[in-house]
Amino acid sequence: MPISPVLERQATYPFVRLNEAARQRLERGLEVIDFGTGDPREATDPRIRQALVDGLRERMGYPLAQGLPELRTAIAAWAERRFGARLDPDADIVPTLGSKEAIFTFAHVVVDLERGKDTVAFTEPGYPVYERGALFAHARPLALPLREGNGFLPDLDAVDAAEWRRLAVLWVNYPNNPTAATAPLSFYERLAGLAREHGFVLASDEAYTELWFDAPPASALELDDLTNVAVFNTLSKRSSMTGYRSGFVAGDAALVAALKAFRPTVGTAPQEFVQRASVAAWGDEEHVEQTRARYGRKRALFLDLFARKGVRVAGSAATMYLWLEVPGGETSEGFAQRLLEHGVLVAPGSYLGASGEGYARLALVPAEDECARAAEILEDVL
Ligand SMILES: Cc1ncc(COP(=O)(O)O)c(C=O)c1O
What we know:
Elements: H1 5-9, H2 15-27, E1 33-34, H3 46-54, H4 69-83, E2 93-96, H5 100-110, E3 119-124, H6 129-136, E4 140-145, H7 161-166, E5 167-172, H8 185-198, E6 201-205, E7 229-234, H9 235-238, E8 247-251, H10 253-266, H11 272-282, H12 286-309, E9 313-315, E10 321-325, H13 332-340, E11 344-345, E12 347-348, E13 359-363, H14 368-381
Parallel strand pairs: 1-11, 3-4, 3-5, 5-6, 6-7
Antiparallel strand pairs: 2-8, 7-8, 9-10, 10-13, 12-13
Helix pairs in contact: 3-11, 4-11, 5-6, 12-14
Bound molecules: pyridoxal-5'-phosphate.
């Protein structure tokens, strides 16, 4: 039976080993407090859930790729309040089923092998979907390492002119998963300039812009000129709505038009009842403030613990993650295995990319009482 060789070549998802060890512990009746994956375990605001229920009709037809006008208007209004962006709801925004599918398929929309625009660049360690989308579109992946010495920003001076010319798209993700670093507006300004100069798309994955602690992070939506720029955002983290699958792409109207042409073929228009719930979610900041406060309390608990234990936190400015330096020269995987033996599951940095070796990622997703219990355990283990 024919199976895509790209699929067959995919490395086994690295978390499988750790998850298996966690499963075995649970089977033996032992506890596992899971800081491994970034799936918020908070309740979704009741008003959002009610809007979903109210949106259910006797007959639901096919949703349109451009989405409901109410949703596009709600997204444009949010982007203006939050970033001062002036988006035309009809031309500059398209809703997505969360951002994962839109990120994965984006290479299909922009890669042009015939014209030599064959390369998809992304940063590592990072979210694996940029690279996987590139491979399935038969594009050439180019990983740009994130190093602490450069504030976990890619070294743009290390990319030579020939590479810039081959780029179809460059993915950046700030606030960053997994390093928790943020990027200044000047970073987006420089990249958008390079995108226009060399004819590629700057794709900014901004899934975590709303999970911040001291100061709200910048967005590429703050740029004066969005030519060659596409911004991806989602309700998954901001509104703890991973199961709803709701996000958007906004930016250059020509790219949005291309997405509206592409997406009906894939069938990725969000269900209308989800769109109605999303209108409620983008229109409310109170639940987001509560979410930030909750992550803030968990973060403070662990920052205090790690400071006392001499574990250096290399990144914690935003996102739901803490990026820890693995203490004592242990490998990332060895450190994660050791913590799991005591019931605390974290992600080894090396699982998220080669440059993640020497670090571990802690997703602050367990409930506050579980976080307190994990802190007690780590008090003894570290
Ligand atoms: C960096 C990053 N981008 C995008 C996503 C996708 O989120 P969703 O598809 O739920 O919107 C995630 C999810 O973990 C992520 O970490």
